[in-house]
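Re: beginner question about structure tokens

> Can someone show what the tokenized structure looks like for a real chain? I only ever see the sequence side.

Sure, here's an example I had lying around. Input first:
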Amino acid sequence: MAKIALITGGTSGIGLAVAKDLSLTDSWQVNIIGSNQERGEEAAASFSNVTFYQADVRNYQQLAAVFDQIFNAAGRIDFVFANAGRAGDTDFFAKCETGIPPDPGFEIVDINVNGAFTKHALVGFTRSVGERLWEEGVRINALCPGVVETPLFSVEAFTSIFPREIFIPMSVVTGIIAQLLSGGDMVDAKGMRVAGEEMHSRAIHVSGENFLFIEKPGIYDEQTRMTWAAMMGHE
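And the corresponding structure tokens:
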């Protein structure tokens, strides 16, 4: 029986690359979510076992309806890749010579934080809820790649900001996701090994052709431990 995958932002970039890799294994039924109907239908038609659903990740009702539809049809969801994101070209640190600073706009926050979270928010979220979800049989990890060439920017825009030598091959990102889905042990570039059964609530930084586990801050006293346990519903 095929496993069920759901990928937000699955019509281009990293999301589409992961959808393609999963579809080629013939062991996954892949569901991609995006706001662009034409691009989504084209992506779904390009691969086997891929279905497109149109939804805006900023709209909770739309997103929840898609999750509900997929879950009710299949009876389960095995893998969710919260990948939707958008890049901005506004200089946050630009000086305003007169008057009130211009409205920075919150579309990026709505998509990146509410849809897939920014990297910093994502790491905190993963660490906060990961342990509790693991007790309920749900594995959650945060993948934090550096610069990957995607349709977020044109090639010219990418290379005008970042030197080409720091770009991460798409195959590296999809390969790490494949390792995570395998459930086996993983060893990072510094030799840190994490057993498969411990592979949850973790943040993974991707750079070049390597990845590194980002160690989380410790709990340094009993009062903090008790506070955290109470927040997570533990004794």
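Each token stands for a local structural state, so reading them left to right follows the chain. Strands lie at 3-8, 28-34, 50-54, 79-82, 141-145, 186-187, 193-194, 202-207, 210-214.
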